[in-house]
Design brief:
three-stranded mixed beta sheet
């Protein structure tokens, strides 16, 4: 599905948010890397790896925004909506491998070998981190502003926007940890503080990567609609006078704003094949009107009395399905 005008506007806003985050992370990554090498700071180098990982992830998210809106074709009849979830999973892996693992490495190396820093190194490192904190904060505020514009928690359904918020929030917290570690190292002369900050940043990144990866995994496997919406569809089906019972109702998200709905219903006895088809069409229109995101609706319609020896013409969805 290509999406409605509203969906495309939301994508445009998300694209701007991702580009803002990408620009901030590229500048910050270079500054942190140069400052980290100059100061010999493990915490600052860990933050540089974090920013590099975030920059690559923003590229993945831009690919997700572009590719997920491609229209359905013969090879992918339900569209490319799940591309959004796939690239979000790749972004989560990037956070884990490039950010978390490198931060652990820097922390362990600092504990093993120590790290000597001059006063000028501390000053440069803290200045770089202060600038990074401001830049990451601006990017986070931009992302949170878009979340509010898109309905608060409902806006976080978009894995691209959710990933940007998680990355920016983690970056602000990570920079704060790095600043605390460097300051304590400077005051006490003990590298353990800065190494501990690097390890803490690694733990933080691994946790965020796990949460984002778990969400993307659930959506890729095939996540159902929320129970409230599913219940509304079930009640609508039960309210139809021609339906005797709802035997099964299955839903699966196939994109950010597209869901497949499949129901098996038994009809009251005595309906002929033409009437069955009319009922199936009317029911599908009712479901689509109540739940706009139900882009694909399939009905397995049977007449319990009339179909003991043969299948209803709408049973397979060829005539009664969407």
């Amino acid at each position: 599905m290509t999406g409605t005008a509203t969906d495309q506007e939301a994508d445009s806003r998300t694209r701007v948010t991702v580009l803002v985050a990408l620009a901030a992370n590229l500048v910050i990554a270079v500054a942190k890397a140069v400052g980290g090498l100059f100061a010999g700071s493990p915490a600052l180098l860990s933050e540089a790896a974090h920013s590099v990982a975030d920059s690559l992830n923003e590229v993945f998210l831009l690919a997700a925004l572009r590719r997920s809106r491609r229209p359905a074709d013969q090879r992918h009849p339900f569209g490319y909506g799940k591309e959004r979830f796939f690239w979000s999973l790749i972004a989560a892996v990037g956070i884990f491998v490039m950010g978390g693992c490198f931060s652990f490495f820097q922390g362990v190396e600092a504990l093993r070998n120590g790290a000597e820093e001059e006063l000028s190194g501390y000053v440069v490192g803290l200045i770089v981190l202060a600038v990074a904190l401001v830049a990451e904060g601006v990017s986070l505020l931009r992302a949170l502003h878009q979340v509010r514009r898109q309905g608060g928690s409902a806006g976080l359904r978009d894995p691209a926007l959710r990933t940007v918020v998680a990355e920016d929030g983690t970056a602000v917290l990570g920079v704060t940890l790095a600043m605390i570690g460097m300051a304590l190292h400077m005051v006490t002369g003990q590298v353990v503080w800065e190494a501990s900050a690097s390890l803490a940043i690694g733990v933080l990144l691994v946790y965020v990567a796990y949460r984002l990866g778990r969400d993307a995994r659930d959506q890729l496997i095939g996540e159902a609609m929320d129970p409230e919406t599913t219940g509304r569809i079930r009640e609508l089906l039960r309210a139809q006078p021609e339906i005797d019972s709802v035997e099964a109702l299955l839903t699966m998200k196939v994109g950010l704003d597209s869901t497949l709905v499949a129901a098996r219903v038994d009809l009251v006895p005595g309906l002929d094949s033409e009437r069955v088809e009319e009922v199936a069409v009317r029911i599908k229109r009712s479901v689509a009107g109540m739940v706009p995101e139900a882009g694909e609706i399939f009905l397995d319609v049977t007449d319990r009395a009339a179909n003991r020896t043969h299948e209803s013409p709408a049973a397979t969805g060829e005539r009664g399905g969407a």
